[in-house]
Amino acid sequence: MNQRETIDLSLISKIDNHKVSKKHMAEIIEARYHEIFVMIKDELRSIGRDGMLPGGVILTGSGVKMPGCLDLAREVLGLPVQMGFPTEVEGVVDKIDDPSYASAIGLVTWGARYEGRSYGIGNFDFKKVFSGAKGWFKNLLP
Question: Which DSSP string do the residues of 105-117 spell out, in sequence order?
Answer without folding.
Answer: HHHHHHHHHHTT-
